[in-house]
Write a structure and sequence with these properties.
It contains eight helices and eight strands. With 229 residues, the chain is an alpha+beta fold. This is Phage portal protein.
């Protein structure tokens, strides 16, 4: 369910803004991997801001692109897919259902590709109702552009206090996912998207369609650390 706590939404938004440097770095790495290796902005000796490509040309050089990274990434991901195909199916029938319904081979391969390029791989595991398949365990690869969390030091993430992601949905999708066949909840969703109140819903137009950006977060309460003498 969505939150109507403005303080929580502000904290989530602040956490998302703290990841701005990560998102910028990731975009640059993506461009570099897929062949756009000269578009980063730089300054000339006169203080003019130009792309690295233009700066090299102005200096009389011919910028060349050696796109070895993409081939390496494809090779590693291809080997990973092959290893999965040879590993067999999970021993448990329940795990097999989760495996097949989520197409985990493809999800994990794409997560590895993201990790090789940006050093970031995020997956979300949740039990919820998703039409038309109904209730079950669902696994999603989370776009780092939409991910946020509070600072942490523990590599297991046990000291993360707030974690979440952004969702871009139409109002109809919101009703389907969060309406729970409740007329009252549907009315709240409609009012929230119409007025852009601080409920975690922000109405915008993306790609010519009316979309709603949903801030979905979870507050975590780590157990107090035990001290041994």
């Amino acid at each position: 369910m969505f939150s109507s706590n403005p303080g929580l939404i502000e904290e989530a938004f602040s956490a998302w803004k703290r990841h701005a440097a990560l998102r910028t770095t990731r975009r640059g790495l993506m461009r570099h991997t897929y062949g756009d290796q000269w578009s980063d902005l730089t300054q000339t000796s006169s203080g003019q801001t130009v792309s690295e490509y233009e700066k090299a040309r102005m200096a009389g050089m011919r910028p060349l692109t050696n796109n070895l990274l993409r081939a390496l990434v494809k090779s590693v991901v291809g080997r990973f897919r092959y290893n999965i195909s040879q590993s067999g199916e999970p021993p448990s029938a329940q795990l097999l259902d989760v495996y097949r319904s989520n197409l985990l081979d493809e999800l994990d391969s794409r997560a590895l590709e993201e990790f090789l390029i940006s050093g970031t791989a995020i997956q979300r595991v949740v039990y919820e109702n998703r039409p038309p398949d109904g209730a079950g365990v669902w696994i999603d690869n989370v776009n780092p552009e939409h991910f946020f969390c509070t600072p942490f030091r523990d590599p297991r993430g046990s000291d993360i206090r707030l974690i979440g992601m952004l969702h871009d949905m139409t109002l109809d999708e919101l009703r389907l996912r969060f309406g729970h066949n409740s007329r009252a909840v549907t009315v709240i969703l409609k009012k929230s998207t119409a007025t852009s109140q601080p409920t975690g819903l922000i109405s915008r137009r993306w790609h010519g369609a009316d979309m709603t950006r949903l801030i979905r977060s979870s507050t975590l309460h780590p157990r107090p650390a035990s001290v041994g003498l």
